[in-house]
Design goal:
- The chain has helices at residues 61-70, 96-142, 148-158, 170-173, 177-192, 195-200, 205-223; strands at residues 13-16, 36-38, 41-43, 53-57, 74-81, 86-95.
- A hairpin with a 4-residue loop joins strand 5 and strand 6 (86-95).
- The chain has two domains: 13-105, no CATH class; 143-223, no CATH class.
- The longest helix is centred in the middle third of the chain and has 47 residues, at 96-142.
- Strands 1-5-6-4 form a four-stranded mixed beta sheet. A two-stranded antiparallel sheet has the order 2-3.
- 48% of the residues lie in helices and 14% in strands.
- The chain is α+β, with helices and mostly antiparallel strands and 237 residues long.
Length: 237
């Protein structure tokens, strides 16, 4: 389908990237990469008094907006899409000095965003440390036989941000007894029972848990009293 004779309704100055070879009706230069229609006749950017502007392709919304804000004179650049039968925006023409100022503003914003991300990361890291400390303290309250370093290891593992583990659940963040116990059970299951070997041997998960349930409960009974938690023997867990 050939492009329509006239472009879409104008909002400010409009410049067209033609699909066909066009020459300026005034200076006869061509073919033109961009043109302005004046009374239906194509004009090159120089003849339309827009030759001093620079082209900024679409894609960076903030840069485009700020370039137009900084530029005394600007124009929207469009091209006809035959498949969709409509003109589509390709970018803008702005003053070069305006583009430089806009780029400086965007760079300043990028630096501010980088610093904010660094502050947020530092804040989250501090929050994670405090939460892991609180989780470890709750483990020790419920299981006083658990060594402090093991409680800390469990708390750190289960509270990793974005891990989906029980420590990051709503119950875990609330330090509920059920969530804390679940985290300890998971550690006992992997370290003090043949659970992992059963899984590697093809035993279904629910069946493997059934087989080791008594062993897990035995370890938990030890942890609930003030007794030392033996480290697992070599080859276990």
């Amino acid at each position: 389908m050939a492009p329509p004779a006239t472009p879409p309704p104008r909002v400010g100055l409009l410049v067209i990237q033609p699909l066909r070879r066009k020459h300026c009706a005034e200076c006869r230069r061509g073919p033109l990469p961009m043109l302005v229609l004046e009374e239906g006749a194509p004009r090159c950017l120089d003849c339309a008094d827009l030759g001093h502007l620079v082209f900024l392709p679409r894609g960076d919304t903030a840069l485009t907006r700020r370039s137009r804000e900084e530029s005394t004179l600007s124009a929207v650049v469009v091209r006809f899409n035959r498949r969709r039968s409509r003109y589509e925006r390709q970018g803008v023409l702005v003053e070069e000095a305006a583009l430089v100022r806009a780029e400086e503003r965007c760079l300043a914003d990028a630096e501010a965003r980088r610093r904010r991300r660094a502050r947020d990361a530092h804040r989250r890291a501090a929050e994670d440390v405090r939460f892991a400390d609180a989780f470890a303290a709750e483990i020790l309250r419920l299981f006083p036989g658990c060594p402090a370093d093991r409680a800390r290891a469990i708390a750190t593992h289960t509270s990793v941000r974005g891990s989906g583990r029980v420590g990051r659940s709503a119950a875990g963040r609330a330090l509920s007894e059920g969530a804390v116990t679940s985290a300890v059970v998971a550690s006992v299951r992997h370290l003090y029972t043949p659970y992992d070997q059963l899984l590697m041997g093809g035993v279904p998960r629910h069946e493997a848990r059934r087989r080791i349930a008594a062993g897990v409960e035995s370890v938990l009974r030890v942890l609930r009293v003030l007794r030392a938690w033996r480290e697992p023997e070599a080859g276990v867990g």
